[in-house]
Design brief:
5-stranded antiparallel beta sheet; 366 residues; 5-stranded mixed beta sheet; 13 helices; alpha+beta; Arc Repressor Mutant, subunit A; elongated; 3 domains; Alpha-Beta Plaits
Length: 366
């Protein structure tokens, strides 16, 4: 049964008293006053409350009856009900003849506040449980274990493959954490995802139990959600995987995707940068030796030219337009790269070598 805490009781007294301009008392299941504006009455037994708890009915104490009810003042005393159980009593001090329907209104307000506090506490522990699950999943040595199973069981979740990891890096927003989490869970489905903030500007999501096509649709819907809320983000998502011990790797791959992908892209999959990511897994000395041998005396301007040429699929006119260059100026630059490196970027095999060397060069610049 839900317990009526002193903190909650004080909040009820504060909110109702200032609106009614009357003293409000909250009594617990023992009939003790646990919250009131008159601090001298805290801890005293309220006989009127005892009667309410006994008979489960509202008790009205008139001005000429207060001597019959030790510890009570004239007023109305009503049972506080939560989940069909009485959890305390609320008393409003004053002449009952002047109150009208105030008593029932205060009772309803009180029960709504308790219900909201209960729902908030439920959301809080559920979210903390999700954070614990994510911490366990991202542990390098995670496999199916009793601890994760217990946490999942509390939430009524079953982790079934395929899994996809999503990282959302937030740049700007004015939307509260809880709102974002609830909106994201609504898109993904409560049984097909876990959503949690890893820090103030990073959200972790795992989507599971649905096929790759449906997963991609949900990821696109998430992107549209952020746009509609004017939340500026960059999002990366992993390749699908089927075992829990791959979560740590998938998370690192998403981090790498955010790091080495185009900063203007708001949504990027690891699959799009997978080839480039291999450069980050090669021995540094071997990679730099290759890049320096191919590119020789390379600089940032030449890197910008090559990058634009590759982005535009080796199309000279589109590259020239992107760089705001005359076509002949671009051709001159490409010929200069050929003269200095010995590799012709317009030739497939040479362009492949130059692309790998460029990735290594760019890695050193970041």
């Amino acid at each position: 049964m839900h317990m009526l805490t002193k903190t909650m009781a004080n909040e009820i007294v504060k909110e109702t008293s200032k609106r009614l301009h009357r003293n409000v008392n909250i009594m617990n299941m023992e009939g003790k006053i646990i919250a009131t504006q008159d601090k001298t009455r805290i801890g005293s037994i309220h006989k009127g409350a005892m009667e309410v708890l006994k008979n489960k009915k509202t008790l009205i104490i008139h001005m000429n009856e207060k001597e019959n009810w030790e510890g009570a003042q004239p007023g109305i005393n009503l049972p506080i009900v939560f989940l069909e159980q009485i959890i305390g009593v609320i008393g409003i001090t004053g002449d009952p003849n002047e109150m009208g329907s105030i008593g029932e209104m205060v009772k309803m307000t009180t029960e709504l506040m308790i219900r909201q506090e209960f729902m908030d506490s439920q959301l809080e522990w559920k979210q903390r449980t999700k954070e614990i699950i994510i911490e366990q999943l991202l542990n390098r040595h995670t496999s199916v274990n009793g601890s994760i199973d217990q946490s999942l069981s509390l939430l009524g979740l079953n982790l079934t493959p395929p899994f996809t990891t999503v990282i959302i890096q937030i740049k700007e927003r004015s939307v509260p954490n809880r709102t974002l989490i609830q909106d994201l869970e609504e898109i993904i489905g409560s049984k097909n995802g876990i959503v949690s903030f890893m820090n103030v500007n990073r959200i972790f999501i795992t989507i599971f139990g649905i096929d790759e096509k449906e997963t991609h649709l949900k990821i696109e819907s998430i992107n549209q959600l952020f746009k509609s809320l004017n939340v500026i983000t960059r999002m990366a998502y992993s390749l699908p995987f089927s075992t829990l011990d791959k979560f740590n790797q998938s998370y690192k791959e998403c981090e790498l995707t955010l790091k080495i992908s185009d900063l203007e892209s708001d949504i990027v999959s690891f699959a799009q940068i997978e080839a480039k990511s291999l450069i980050y897994q090669v021995d540094d000395f071997v990679a730099k030796r290759f890049s320096q041998r191919v590119l020789k005396n390379f600089n940032v301007d030449k890197a910008v030219t090559l990058e634009a040429f590759f982005v535009n699929n080796l199309n000279i006119q589109k590259t020239a337009d992107d760089l705001y260059l005359h076509r002949n100026t671009l051709i001159y630059r490409l010929n200069k790269i050929l003269d200095e490196t010995g590799y012709d970027v317009r030739n497939f095999k040479d362009s492949l070598i130059l692309q790998v060397a460029l990735w290594i060069f760019q890695k050193g610049e970041t």
